[in-house]
Design goal:
99 residues, flat, mainly alpha, single chain
Length: 99
Amino acid sequence: MHLLRIFIIGAAMVGCAIIGVAQTSEPTPATTPTAPTTAAAAAPAEAAKEQMETAANIKELQELKAQNDEILKQQQAALDQLDQLQKEAEQLRVFSKRG
């Protein structure tokens, strides 16, 4: 029974390792030949497009960060209220035991 358990755990570990390696391996990208004039003309346009996308992504991330900060403030306020309620409940328990 002990040997079977070790075998099952070992097989599970090997299986997980194989799956992990399979997920991390990257396929080789397919390259397509392009004309040099097309690449030279498209490079500035692509760079400008990437800059615009990057700026849009940064703006979106900043908005998400602001939203997350607001949510964290609300959660902290709720936690503070819960802490206060817990303290009051403890005081009530102490006073109810005295009476």
